[in-house]
What we know:
- With 349 residues, this protein is an alpha/beta fold.
- Helix content is 33%, strand content 23%.
- It has helices spanning 22-28, 35-42, 56-71, 96-104, 120-134, 215-224, 234-260, 277-287, 307-317; strands at 6-14, 19-21, 46-48, 80-83, 110-113, 140-147, 169-177, 181-191, 199-201, 229-231, 269-272, 326-333, 337-347.
- It has a five-stranded mixed sheet, with helices on both faces. It has a four-stranded mixed sheet with strand order 8-13-12-11. A two-stranded antiparallel ribbon has the order 2-3.
- Helix 3 (56-71) packs across helix 4 (96-104).
- The chain starts with 5 loop residues before the first strand and ends with a strand.
- The relative contact order is 0.18.
Amino acid sequence: MNKDRVGIVGYGLYIPETYMSAEDVAVATNGQWTADAVEKKLGFQKKPVPGDNDGTQEMGARAAQDAIERTGIDPMDIDLILCIGEEYKEYPLTTSGIYIQEQIGARNAWSIDIQQRCNTTVAALKMAKDMIIADEEIDTVMIVGGYRNGDFIDYNDPAVSFMFNLGAGAGAFIVKRNHDRNLILGTHIMTDGSLARDAGVLLGGTEHPIEKLPEEELQKVRETGNLTLRVFEPEHMKDRLNEVSMPNWFTCIDKALAKSGYTRDDLTFCNVLHFKHSMYKYMLGELGLTEDQSVYLDQYGHIGQIDQFIAVHEGVEQGKLKDGDLMVIIAAGIGYVWGATIVKWGPAE
Length: 349
């Protein structure tokens, strides 16, 4: 067998039952946005939001269990858990992958949490493949995690309106050595440190600890129960992203394709995170693809690094992602990072 063959055995999902509609978002903005504008400009009709028991780690455990049930894999056969769940979770400084490991009974595995915001799943696919190839003791990897960063959104802050689509959910992939289906091929990732602190949660870290917040900020935290996700440098972030974002994305796509022995002409399916529909159509056009060769996540919004799992699920369920397809998985995250991975879906040639 080819030791470099690493494939995706299957996936798992957990999506909360509670949703926030475009109308709900419009109401939350106190009239700054209409439901029609949310749907047309931001590109979603509804998005899942967490219920009372939908913690980040707990949702990850449910997605992991779903992956086990869908694939029939024995949890004791998992050698490594790469947890792509967000830092915002039930208890700070706990390791999410280790919690999930215990919940699913993967007692032969070791676990590590990795973070790259909304590009974490793309990074994890590369890491899983590279680690399987490099380490003969690793045959089976679970990539898993939960996300609920929508909790940080202040719907009265116009600077973060591009993140009004943030939702909640969890996903999992099972990745295995010598699995001759859904082969993970080339990946390319780019990061730009000039944007490292243009967006984030200003309060609650070592620079601005909660116990030293001004009374006005403390009162806001008491009222909402949350700190907020902010754009610290809106003009710089806007100008820099306008300059480099699309070129960097296409560089990642083209280099991932080249590493895989393909070009854009070979692509037949685009798995891309949720963003506004005009950008989505532009990207598909540049790749020579149609909306029948992709899934637009207007029923989910943007669930960070969980979008890639949802796009696989919906692609398969809708009959858009088929055996023989060459899929590009595309993501980006604040910080800033862009990434693309190529997957040959279906039986290996």
